[in-house]
Design goal:
single chain; 116 residues; 3-stranded mixed beta sheet; 5-stranded antiparallel beta sheet; Immunoglobulin-like; 1 helix; 8 strands; alpha+beta; 19% helix
Length: 116
């Protein structure tokens, strides 16, 4: 009887343990960088930072023009892309939620000498 109770207890607790382990309290900021020609950009540099301007991170887009910032704590972030002299506008106060992937599209504008 004791063994049956332990098995039942462990089985009942498994969904809670799994849910807590899966997302670890983190979310992902992801998206696509679109060039001035309207197509995804390979090798664009994407910067993400918390909305207060702290803790900048940098990544590069993949062969599909996609970028990922995994394991971000729940909160608000700013993101911007750069490639070959062209910048995107900042996307400000983008909410990243625990256990979810937030999607962005960053569009590069006509080339300029410096970011705004």
């Amino acid at each position: 009887m004791r063994r049956y109770f332990l098995i039942l207890l462990c089985t009942a607790m498994l969904p809670f343990a799994t849910a807590a382990h899966d997302d670890g309290g983190m979310g992902t900021l992801a998206g696509t960088v679109i060039g001035t020609n309207g197509k995804p950009v390979v090798g664009a540099r994407v910067t993400s930072q918390n909305a207060g301007g702290d803790h900048p991170q940098l990544t590069t887009t993949n062969q599909q023009g996609r970028f990922f910032f995994p394991d971000l704590q729940h909160g608000y972030y700013d993101a911007r892309a750069y490639h070959d002299g062209a910048w995107s506008e900042w996307k400000h106060n983008v909410e990243v939620s625990t256990g979810k992937q937030t999607e962005l599209v960053l569009r590069l504008s006509v080339k300029s000498s410096s970011p705004k």
